[in-house]
Design brief:
It holds the Pfam family IspD. This protein has about 240 residues and is an alpha/beta fold. The chain contains 7 helices and 12 strands. The protein is globular. The relative contact order is 0.18. It binds cytidine-5'-triphosphate and magnesium ion (MG).
Length: about 240
C-alpha cells in the first residue's frame, strides 16, 4: 500500500483579507504551504505529496518548495499541479496527478499548516487498516443552531438546536481508499453539487466514514485572528 497526500492550496483566502493567496502567506517567516507540506512529509506513512497550487502560480510554488527543506529524511517526492475555481475542483486535479501505485490518499488543507504528525499518522493507519474513509474530528464547544431565511432583511429565526454532544468539528487530513475517493468525486461532478469536504462526498455514496481524534492545532487558518493563533502555536513549539 502506498499513501499519498494531496494538499489543496489553490484558494485565494478571501476571509483572511487582502494579500497573497492564503497558502503563500507567511507564519513566522515561513509560507503556510511549506508548513503544511512538512506536516505531511513528517509522517512515515506518506511517501508522495501532491500540492495543488493557485491556477496561475504553479511555477512559483514549485520554486518556493524547491527552496525549502521539506522532509527531515529527504525521501518524500513532491508534485505540483495547478488548481481550479473551487476546492472540490482543486482536489480532483490533484487526484488526477497520482501515480498508479498509490492505493490510499490523505487530503489535507494547506490552510491547516500546524496539524501534528500524530494526527496524520492516526488517519493513515486507519486507511492502512482498511477504512474506506476517515476524518479527524473534535467535539464542538459552541452550541450550534440551524437558522431559517430572514423575512425582508430582518433577523434570522432559529429553527433548530442541534444536540451538541453528538456534533463533531471535522478537520483534515481526511483519509481515503483511492478508488472510493475517485468514485465520490466523479459522482459529485456528474450531479453538479458542491461539498465542503471530501468525506461529505463519500457519505453520499453510502460508504461509511469513521472518525479518529483530531487535534486543536489542526485548526484551519481562515480569518485574521487565526494567523495570530498560528504564530503563537509556532512560537510555543520553538520555545
Ligand atoms: N482551495 C483550493 N482551491 C480552491 C479553493 C480552496 O485548493 N479553489 C483550498 C485552500 O487553498 C485551502 C483549502 O482549500 O487550503 C480550504 O479552503 P479555505 O480555507 O476556504 O481557503 P480559501 O478558499 O482560500 O479561503 P476563503 O474561502 O476565505 O477565500
Ligand atoms: Mg474557501
Amino acid at each position: 500500500a502506498r499513501i499519498a497526500a494531496v494538499i489543496p492550496a489553490a484558494g485565494r483566502g478571501l476571509r483572511l483579507g487582502p494579500g497573497a493567496p492564503k497558502a503563500l502567506r507567511s507564519l513566522n517567516g515561513t509560507p503556510m504551504l511549506v508548513h503544511a507540506v512538512r506536516a505531511m512529509a513528517r509522517s512515515r506513512a506518506v511517501s508522495l505529496v501532491v500540492v495543488v497550487a493557485p491556477p496561475e502560480g504553479a511555477a512559483e510554488v514549485r520554486t518556493l518548495l524547491d527552496g525549502h527543506a521539506l522532509a527531515a529524511r529527504g525521501t518524500t517526492e513532491v508534485i505540483v499541479v495547478p488548481g481550479g475555481e473551487t476546492r472540490q475542483e482543486s482536489v480532483r486535479l490533484g487526484l488526477a496527478a497520482l501515480p498508479g501505485d498509490v492505493t490510499g490518499v490523505l487530503v489535507h488543507d494547506a490552510a491547516r499548516p500546524l496539524v501534528p504528525v500524530d494526527t496524520v499518522d492516526a488517519v493513515a493507519a486507519a486507511v492502512r487498516d482498511g477504512a474506506p474513509a476517515v476524518v479527524p474530528a473534535l467535539p464542538v464547544s459552541d452550541t450550534v443552531k440551524e437558522v431559517g431565511p430572514s423575512a425582508d432583511g430582518g433577523p434570522e429565526p432559529v429553527v433548530a438546536t442541534l444536540e451538541r454532544a453528538r456534533l463533531r468539528a471535522v478537520q483534515t487530513p481526511q483519509g481515503f481508499d483511492r478508488g472510493t475517493l475517485l468514485e465520490a468525486h466523479e459522482k459529485v461532478a456528474l450531479e453538479g453539487e458542491g461539498a465542503t469536504d471530501d468525506a461529505g462526498m463519500v457519505e453520499r455514496l453510502g460508504v461509511e466514514v469513521v472518525v479518529v481524534p483530531g487535534h486543536e492545532e489542526a485548526f484551519k487558518v481562515t480569518r485574521p485572528l487565526d494567523l495570530v493563533l498560528a504564530e503563537a502555536v509556532l512560537a510555543r513549539r520553538r520555545a
